[in-house]
Amino acid sequence: MTLFRAVCGAALLVASIDEAALATTQNVIFNGTIAPTCTLVVATNGTMTASPDLQSLSSHNSGGSAGTVTLTTTGGVSLSVDPVTTMTVPSADSTSTTWTPTYSAAGAHAIGETGSASSITTPGADLVSVHLAGTKGGSNRFANGNYQATVTLRCE
Amino acid sequence: MKHARILATALAVGLAPIAAKAQSMSPMRGEINSFTDVFAVRVFPANPYDRKIRVEIHVYDQDFQPVDARISPDIFQLASQASRSVLVVVPFDGAAERKVRICTESIPFPNQQTQIRAQICGKFFGRRKS
Q: Where are the domains of chain A?
């Protein structure tokens, strides 16, 4: 009888140990997907000034300044500027002007000044400088008055 | 037609992610299957600035020509750090599939000499199922 009790007790003990072992580990799996995203925050607008010969009105000229934009992205996007389509000029200016928007970026990605689209493949934040230059050819000159342009900076 | 729009809207809801703050627009990519003559996308423009801005939503094709889509709402004021949903319903115009860009545009500092329009565009591909 004693032997029978010992055998039963041992069997129960082994069974309970086995049950406990089966319930000790479970994996919890986490998945996450980040789609390409982009944030543009305009910090400052630009200022254009005229060159001494009055044939250039540009943010590159002395006293001019670029517009600045903070770019934050996951990567997998492209950055570009659109041609300037609408421009406010003083009534005294009746001659044609060629407008050239450009941009450059410094920070996580180094993009030299360009007017073309740039592919950004890696994540990070940048300070984007946006320039606008207007030029007149021949004997044409910029006139007295207010000029205003809008440059579209696109992240897609 | 009403039922078709409801179905397209329902498909768009399935595509929509949880809106996130400090993004100008999400999502920026998407593929939509539709059983109707339109497909719908729900996007979430956000205002990362510390003040209210005016936001415009535009839809363009691959050549940046405007697309006659229904945008609700297409122009609105967005409070600082806020985000809201915008429903865009794009017609297939008889095609079996269509690629469009949905763009969030804003000029945060208007009325200055050289102002910058920030434009965030998402690329979306609609496929019509028969």
A: 38-155
Q: Give the single-character DSSP code of A84.
A: P
Residue B48 Cα, gap to closest chain A Cα (Å): 7
Q: Which fold has domain A38-155?
A: Immunoglobulin-like (2.60.40)
Q: How many domains is chain B built from?
A: 1
pTM listed for this prediction: 0.81
CATH number, domain at B122?
Answer: 2.60.40.10
Give per-residue pLDDT as tens, B13-71: 444 443 333 447 989 999 999 999 999 999 999 998 988 999 999 999 999 999 999 99
Q: What is the C-alpha to C-alpha distance for residues B117 and A7, in angstroms, rounded to an integer?
A: 84
Look up the domain containing B118 and give its range: 2-128
CB distance A142 to A92 below 8 Å: no
For residue A62, give both structure tokens.
């002395």
CA distance A138 to chain B (A): 25
Residue B88 reports pLDDT greater than 50: yes
Contacts of B125 in chain A (CB under 8 A): none
CB-CB contact of B12 with B87 (8 Å): yes
Q: Which residues does chain B have within 8 Å of residue A44's beta carbon, measured at their own beta carbons?
A: 109
Task: Enter the ipTM.
Answer: 0.80
